[in-house]
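Pair request: fold both.
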Amino acid sequence: MTTSLKYSIFDITYPDSDGLPMAESDAARDYLIYGVEALDRYFQDRPDVYVSGNLFLYYEQGNPKAVVSPDVFVVLGVEKKKRPSYKVWEEQNKIPDFVLEVTSKSTASEDRGIKKGLYAYLGIKEYFQYDPTAEYLKPSLQGFRLLEGNYLSIPGRAEQDCLVVPSETLGLEVWLEADGAMRFYAPSTGEKLLSPKEMAQARSAAEQARSAAEQARYEAEQRANRMAEKLRELGIDPDSL
């Protein structure tokens, strides 16, 4: 006797991880974290913007092999919430609008070939690549915008020894700074988007500067008081000077 087994798309498992540790260089990891944290904070007041990175993104229901894991991606028009993985068909078929790959020696050919073609096929509006070592990508920051199914290079501009590539999708600028670092800037304010670590460092520096200013003011007041006391001892009214 044979038993007929019937499977449906609901029986298919979509793993949230491949069980392998993330193998990235220090620089690649740092920029991946920066990209996710800085963009997530920038869109913190937008409940309809989801920012993530190094997360499995499944783009074809019923096919768990149809998966990619962008280093950093932003989806406009979906709920901001924690997800174990991103399944396009569970998100009103919303694909990412922006993807950034932090390329390295081990991923350069994939980032410039297979992934670039896949992202174009999926319809991702903007695709950025950044090589923190400046060894595999020339220039080491490049942006592409989708036009009629193909990625066209986004023209950058030179500013203060930096390369500036605008992202229309995010409303931000991506800067390749003079020291080779990649940073996001808000063109409306000219402010650099900081990571939580950088923000903590900035707050600490500001607090130290405030404390130093208060100490200097206190010391100046003490010197003025001592001088006034000496004048009084000499029979001089300090207020008359």
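--- second member of the pair ---
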Amino acid sequence: MKLNEIKDNEGATHSRKRVGRGIGSGSGKTGGRGVKGQKARSGVAINGFEGGQMPIYRRLPKRGFNNIFASDYVVVSVERLQKAVDAQKLDPKATVDAAALKAAGVIRRVKDGVRILADGELKAKLTIEVAGASKAAVEKIEKAGGSIKLLAAAAAE
């Protein structure tokens, strides 16, 4: 196969419909817009408008709220830590904290801290300092011979 032999599958591209070009074309005169009315005109944007009837987004009650004080943690699995150690992006002898994880490319930004979850397996012996961790993740880290220090727990006390 050569670059000049590449083409789309048959029927993958449709030619553009030329609307409003005479009655004989099949989509002339009104151009598929029906007859008169607001939607036949140009510049129409009536999403959510129901002809004067109370729109559904106003008929239904509001639910819940957005807690502006909630902590937004970056979630990292135990398996992701192991992969970073295997790829030699994380040094198992050094302390693993948010800055180290960011430098290794495991996380993109720190937000309110890092929380470790227990997905996957961990073989490396790591010393970890993070904002939070699930009980199962703490067990896996300690079972692998590592230790974990939770920063958020210390701040809460």
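Observation on the second member. The first strand starts at residue 74 and ends at 77.
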